[in-house]
Amino acid sequence: MDTWMTPPARKLSEASRTCGCGRTVWPCRMRRPKVAVPSTIHCDHLIEAQVGGEKDLRRAKDINQEVYNFLATAGAKYGVGFWKPGSGIIHQIILENYAYPGVLLIGTDSHTPNGGGLGGICIGVGGADAVDVMAGIPWELKCPKVIGVKLTGSLSGWSSPKDVILKVAGILTVKGGTGAIVEYHGPGVDSISCTGMATICNMGAEIGATTSVFPYNHRMKKYLSKTGREDIANLADEFKDHLVPDPGCHYDQLIEINLSELKPHINGPFTPDLAHPVAEVGKVAEKEGWPLDIRVGLIGSCTNSSYEDMGRSAAVAKQALAHGLKCKSQFTITPGSEQIRATIERDGYAQILRDLGGIVLANACGPCIGQWDRKDIKKGEKNTIVTSYNRNFTGRNDANPETHAFVTSPEIVTALAIAGTLKFNPETDYLTGTDGKKFRLEAPDADELPKGEFDPGQDTYQHPPKDSSGQHVDVSPTSQRLQLLEPFDKWDGKDLEDLQILIKVKGKCTTDHISAAGPWLKFRGHLDNISNNLLIGAINIENGKANSVRNAVTQEFGPVPDTARYYKKHGIRWVVIGDENYGEGSSREHAALEPRHLGGRAIITKSFARIHETNLKKQGLLPLTFADPADYNKIHPVDKLTIQGLKDFTPGKPLKCIIKHPNGTQETILLNHTFNETQIEWFRAGSALNRMKELQQ
């Protein structure tokens, strides 16, 4: 479930109440007087890609009926709008209906910044932050730095908006944007469509940015008008001086990119910041031993599923079809919303992509979040896929750790799927038609918006009823999909003595490693069941294996969740030791709920990703960082840790950690934290929800 709140924009607060889309966008509170509580909920994660859109959607409705009913009735009871299954991906829906220049919007997904393509400050948060807003509690965010990206020149040829963010990711890496807002500006901005700007802002999550934003311009006005919000466009025009960078403003860091010189990029595998020009990736793959043959090309997702994206891909497909070619690789298409699906069906793009050999999947996250019933390979088989998605972490798309996933633009995915190999460069290389003649693909060109109106397709939105007094929300106590949460225990007022180390993680540990997606998503409403995926993807430094840790009592190696449950059953409190940028990726709340549920007390790392660090605090855990990152090497999986100083827990004051080695020796190190006074109250109460209840009594 995704929850979305739209706070009022400075100068544009009335626009949120006069949205031309016919759907209410409510303001929320951020250190402001109490106003109406906003929200919309969505279920785009539960539709598994299997055989094609309509059949997959019917299957999902059947399998997930209990969950869909819960969301629909809960929304109706508490005044929350509900986008039914098949609506599409929430980020596309937000862009089409809710986002506008100057809005401040928070959503429970890390790709919420997609709305920056319409000039909004749209920030991804954890679910507990959304709860605060819905309950009328002030939402807090440490004031971010601002990274400026100055764009000059103009996009042309095979270069696309996706290449901008792929280039920036290569420069900043997956943690270079942490604690910062990325502000794009400069004369090159006007060469990018509104939905192209959204693509760039969307994938800003992959550099750890708090959010990304573009200045208001005529491309945004055009998009607002085309999506039925001309009144908002006119209002934005009236206040446009407030929706662009201030003259002479200073950036904490400045990056300059000449779009006229920008080449098509492809990033990966296994991390979205490993950037390569498309012209070079084949040679790199040969050198590194990455599979050159592309098994599947996948276009769409919340990052690249606009009308323009589909049009440019169709333009590539038409050229191949004209020479009698189809895709050598399997090829899938994921429309971003029901409106996009209906419009590309009407305008012929979908059929062109089918003629090329493509399968149009349901309007949902699908393979991008691991909802992919993949049949063409066996788990453990080394293979390559190329996608227009945003993430390519190990096992992200198909749960196969040997799948080498690369992210690029939809048109490059289409070209590579036709050629079937990473060695193909559409800018210079030739294909051979069925007539034996060689030809080269021309750079694609397509309309950024349909010439006529968008086709809205089926009406998939459920308005909250005016009177919800008779509405009931039922959760069966025997359900395997839904479970009511019980309050976590309060802090006992003592230091944390002799914590067992559940796992010392080696290297990258994203929220996918901590709480895997894919088939596990069906348990998102059942904390105990989904906790059986806790840290199953993390690599244990002790043996170099995933999901294999030593039980300190039995000395046997076993799955991480089983070991955590053993410790919980026997009253043994535990801690996780992590590396750099721990918890990067999705805003997945379960990555914080699960360790708390199974008895964890602290997560100690070299550094954290922003959203995950906050999520841990919200659940009463201690996210702590080594004052000296080298101290990571002092801790061994067989050690025990004592964390002291909690009775005097105050902002800015480090905690003391005593490392107790099995041979009786001890070492003392310092652990930093970013807790403020309010967050320390969460810890003492056992969680932010517990503290909220205390304040209400």
List the SSEs and their pairings.
Blueprint: E1 2-5, E2 40-42, H1 53-63, H2 65-78, E3 81-83, H3 90-97, E4 104-107, E5 121-124, H4 127-134, E6 145-152, H5 161-172, E7 180-185, H6 194-202, E8 211-213, H7 218-226, H8 230-238, E9 253-258, E10 265-267, E11 275-277, H9 278-288, E12 294-300, H10 307-322, E13 330-334, H11 338-346, H12 349-355, E14 358-360, E15 383-387, E16 403-407, H13 410-419, E17 431-432, E18 438-439, E19 461-462, E20 496-504, H14 511-514, H15 527-530, E21 539-540, E22 545-546, E23 549-550, E24 557-558, H16 560-569, E25 574-577, H17 590-597, E26 600-605, H18 610-618, E27 622-626, E28 640-644, E29 655-660, E30 666-672, H19 677-685, H20 688-696
Parallel strand pairs: 2-3, 4-5, 6-7, 6-9, 7-8, 12-13, 12-15, 13-14, 15-16, 20-25, 25-26, 26-27
Antiparallel strand pairs: 1-2, 1-4, 3-19, 10-11, 17-18, 20-28, 21-22, 23-24, 27-30, 28-29, 29-30
